[in-house]
Structures are given as C-alpha cells and as structure tokens.
Amino acid sequence: MSLDHPQQLLKPVSLRLIYLTFALALLAELLPLPVGSMRWMPDFVGLLVIYWAINQPRLVGVGSGFVIGLMADIATAGLFGQHALAYSITCYLAQIRQRQLVMFNLGQQSLVVLGLLLGNQIIMVLARMATGSAFVGWHYFIPPVIGALLWPLLTKLLLAPYRQKN
C-alpha cells in the first residue's frame, strides 16, 4: 500500500447483504452433489464468516459466528456444535488481527485465510474424534486450500457493489 495513493472509499455495507450471503452459503451446503465432488468444495460458510469478520467486525463477531455455525450444523446434520465452535474460534482469531489483515494485499490475506480455514477443519476433526469418530483422512484438508485460492475472487465479488463511482 502506497501512502501517496489512498485506498478507495467504500459505501456502507447493508446488513441485508450479509444475511443474503450467509443464506446462499448455507443453501450451497444443501446442494446434492456427487460423492467425489464434496472433497473439493470449500467451506463457503466458513469463508464468509472470515470475510465478514475481517471487513465488518462490528456487524459479524464471535456470537454471529456461533449462531451461523449452529445453522450450519443443522443444515449439514453433522455433530451439533462442531461448526459453531469452529466458526466462533476462527472468527475470534480473525478479529484479534483484523486491523493488520485489512492492510494486507489479497495474496497475504489468502495465506492467513488458509491458516484460519485449516484451523477450522482441525477443530471440526478434533470435535468428531472426541465423540468417538474415526479420523476422516487427509483429503479433508484439501477444501481449505481451495478456499484460500478462491479468497481473492470472493473479496472482489463482495466489494464490487460498494465501490464509489468517481
């Protein structure tokens, strides 16, 4: 970031857009996909929790991550509370360094998002294993890599409606 070229100012974010993005991400979790394709699909709800926690920390916080996680648990019919725990911890970790993260370029943010998504998956694996489930395999850690690769596209897509017209 150069000091002689300030970043572009953005319009205020609508709470309606935040709700809409989470609803679409939860609907994406419900799509009937072929069995093999689920290995490659990133956690869109987790990506949005991270995105909104970084870009709108006053509107989406740890409590929001917990509630959205409970909704994701209900939608996926998984272990109740695993997404809620993972999203609230991930949201907390994103928000404690939020001021630094917004100053990073998209490549640096992608690396941080990769770490957060991997942490998210580790929390969910540990929650399942604590209840007696077997380890799901190393392929479970492929979607965070894909999510990190999609981070720049997601950021550009969600910022597009809020750019000021000059």
Radius of gyration: 16 Å
What helical percentage do the residues reach?
55-70%
User: What percent strand?
Assistant: under 5%
Uncertain stretches of 5 or more adjacent residues: 1-6
| Topology, number of strands | 0
Q: In angstroms, what separates the terminal alpha carbons?
A: 20 Å
What letter string, H or E per element, gives the SSE order? HHHHHHH
Tell me the count of domains: 1
What is the structure about, briefly put?
This protein is mostly helical and 166 residues long.
Give structural attributes.
mainly alpha; 166 residues; 7 helices; disordered N terminus
Topology:
Blueprint: H1 15-30, H2 44-55, H3 62-76, H4 82-96, H5 98-101, H6 106-130, H7 143-159
Task: Provide structural commentary.
The chain has 166 residues and is mostly helical. 63% of the residues lie in helices and 0% in strands. It has seven helices and no strands. It has helices at residues 15-30, 44-55, 62-76, 82-96, 98-101, 106-130, 143-159. The relative contact order is 0.15.
